Amino acid sequence: MAGGLAMGAQIVEDLPQLQGVGVTQNLGAQVPLDLQFRNSAGESVSLGQFFQTGRPVALTLNYANCPQLCNLQLDGLVAGLDGMEWSAGREFQLITVSIDPTDTPQRFNVLRDKLLGRYSRTSAFDGGWEFLTGSEASIQSLAKSVGFGYKRVELTGDYAHAAALILLTPTGQVSRYLDGVLYDSNTLRLSLVESAGGAIGSYLDAAFLTCFYYDSSAGTYAPAVMTLTRIAGAVLVFFGVGLFFRTQRRNRFNLA
């Protein structure tokens, strides 16, 4: 998958009309929380409203009439979410923003209803998965902050864009990017734990993240060799010291 994405990125760069399309990893960047959008009910909302719960936020950028890629990505996301015990609206917030400023809440709701029908978690219906539309200025400002490059193709009216799930901290900083259209449930869970700074998840999750790091080329978590080596070394020292004192006690007992 990573090789295919790299090849796709190269093709995009080779086409002048598509230069700038892709994802630049702006890790640590702050998203503008004062941006205004419209929710599925057509109400004006600020982006910051979804960062007041102390939960990490997962963000996707799509649009209603996308001929293929958005559907592949969002279907893959639902499959990954279905493999988790956690639910959007409880342990984390999920937001999908349209990159098409002509999308209305009514048109975007067609996509919303399809996805929420598949991801049948009550908390998602109750605001756990928000679908937002907005002005071109608001969309571009958000996209720029998270490094999401896209362009409208004049010939077709479609948008050229990549697929990425962007994980944000509870205060709106970019924490992790999960590229592609398939999302492993365990990788998704650990990315949310990491984005939340340990505020969600178990002690086992925290211990795992101490010994593993996210390998962006593989799209999964891999062992942190140096950390595991240090832990193994500490364990060996501990048992070595224990063996030494045990031997010393046995020798003293034999002499007595």
Task: Summarize the structure in words.
The protein has 8 helices and 13 strands. Strand 12 and strand 13 (220-223) form a beta hairpin. The protein is α+β, with helices and mostly antiparallel strands. The longest helix has 31 residues, at 225-255. It has one domain (2-199): 3-Layer(aba) Sandwich (Glutaredoxin), CATH 3.40.30.10.
List keywords for this structure.
8 helices; 256 residues; 13 strands; disordered N terminus; alpha+beta; Glutaredoxin; five-stranded mixed beta sheet; two-stranded antiparallel ribbon; 43% helix; single chain
Number of helices: 8
| Average pLDDT metric | 82
Shape: globular
**Biggest sheet architecture:** 5 strands, mixed
CATH 2nd-level architecture: 3-Layer(aba) Sandwich
The level of helicity is 40-55%
From N to C, what is the helix and strand string? HEEEEHEHHEHEEEEEHHEEH
Into how many domains do the coordinates divide?
1
CATH class: Alpha Beta
By secondary-structure content and strand pairing, the structural class works out as alpha+beta
Question: Concise description?
Answer:
The chain has 256 residues and is an alpha+beta fold. The chain is built from eight helices and 13 strands. The longest helix is centred in the C-terminal third of the chain and has 31 residues, at 225-255.
Topology:
Layout (H helix, E strand, L loop, with lengths): L1 H13 L7 E2 L12 E3 L5 E3 L10 E6 L6 H14 L10 E6 L6 H14 L3 H7 E4 L3 H10 L2 E2 L1 E2 L6 E2 L3 E5 L5 E6 L5 H11 L7 H9 E4 L4 E4 L1 H31 L1
Parallel strand pairs: 4-5, 5-6
Antiparallel strand pairs: 1-7, 2-3, 4-10, 8-9, 10-11, 12-13
